[in-house]
UniProtKB/TrEMBL annotation:
Catalytic reactions of this protein: L-histidinol phosphate + H2O = L-histidinol + phosphate
Residues engaged in binding Mg(2+): 67, 83, 85-86, 210
Keywords: Amino-acid biosynthesis, Histidine biosynthesis, Hydrolase, Magnesium, Metal-binding
Family assignment from sequence similarity: Belongs to the inositol monophosphatase superfamily.
SUPFAM superfamilies xref list: Carbohydrate phosphatase (SSF56655)
Enzyme Commission code(s) on record: 3.1.3.15
InterPro entries: His_9_proposed, Inositol_monoP_metal-BS, Inositol_monophosphatase-like
The protein's name: Histidinol-phosphatase
NCBIfam families reported for this sequence: his_9_HisN
GO terms of molecular function: histidinol-phosphatase activity; inositol monophosphate 1-phosphatase activity; metal ion binding
UniProt cross-references to Pfam families, sorted A to Z: Inositol_P
Length: 257
């Protein structure tokens, strides 16, 4: 099925109405994970409520999986996967590299998705028509770079600290092979792969709501996104996105050691 851009814009606007007034407002932050720090804010919870309401009204037979409010009708062929604020740590730090992620899977395959960054006024989305951008500079079709060599590639990861044990050693060797490595930015880095500004993102330990929305955006822009082992990315895990098939293969081999 196809999802109209008008509906994606409605979702983006509804989420922004909850997130933007709370951004840089010094609001309360709760911790969801004892012994660690997994922050959640009122903006996360209220934005997801707004998104779920729109989806339920338009597609009452579809299921929903959200980071903050759980799952409903999960046996449906059509499942919407929501992360109201991907990059909550950036959000509470006042950095505009968080985004609202909403994706749709049909029989487990990601077919449509959007990433909205309302502070910068940007919307990245993919549906049956391809991958597209709306924001400063005007609308355009998204296309990945044609980079095929690690030596010419720009790599992003949230932080190398997420790689544990031998995986950290392999990551460090991998990073030494690329032209430029940068850290942070969560979903924004994946969007930049689709936009042709970043070549590789390698992020371990992602959840489905961290990545489902980004899969069709990257794929329809010409990129490749899988687990580190080459499997489907829809269920999360250790995720690798690259601008071209050749670069993806080289990055996957480097991460395997």
């Amino acid at each position: 099925m196809d999802i109209s851009i008008d509906f994606m814009r409605r979702i983006a606007h509804a989420a922004a109405a909850e997130t933007l007034p709370r951004f840089r407002s010094q609001g309360a932050v709760a911790n969801k994970e004892q012994g660690s720090f997994d922050p959640v804010t009122e903006a996360d919870r209220e934005a997801e409520r707004a998104i779920r309401a729109l989806i339920s009204a338009k597609y009452p037979d579809h299921g929903i999986l959200g980071e903050e409010h759980g799952s409903e009708n999960i046996s449906s062929r059509h499942i919407w996967v929501i992360d109201p604020i991907d990059g909550t740590r950036a959000f509470i730090s006042g950095l505009p590299v968080w985004g609202t992620l909403v994706g749709l899977t049909v029989d487990g395959d990601a077919v449509a998705g959007m990433m909205s960054q309302p502070f910068t006024g940007e919307l990245f989305y993919a549906n049956a028509s391809g991958a597209h951008y709306e924001g400063p500079g005007g609308p355009r079709r998204l296309t990945t770079r044609k980079t095929t060599s690690l030596a010419e590639a720009t790599l992003f990861t949230t932080t190398p600290a997420l790689f544990k044990g031998d995986a950290r050693l392999r990551y460090d060797l991998f990073e030494q092979q690329v032209q430029l490595a940068r850290y942070g930015t969560d979903c924004y880095a994946f969007a930049m792969v689709a936009a042709g500004s970043v070549d590789i993102v390698a992020d371990p330990g992602l959840k489905p709501y961290d990545i489902v929305a980004l899969i069709p955006i990257i794929e329809k822009a010409g990129g490749v996104i899988t687990t580190f082992e080459g499997g489907p990315a829809e269920k999360g895990g250790d995720i690798l996105a690259a601008a071209t098939p050749e670069l993806h293969a080289a990055a996957m081999a480097a991460l395997r050691g």
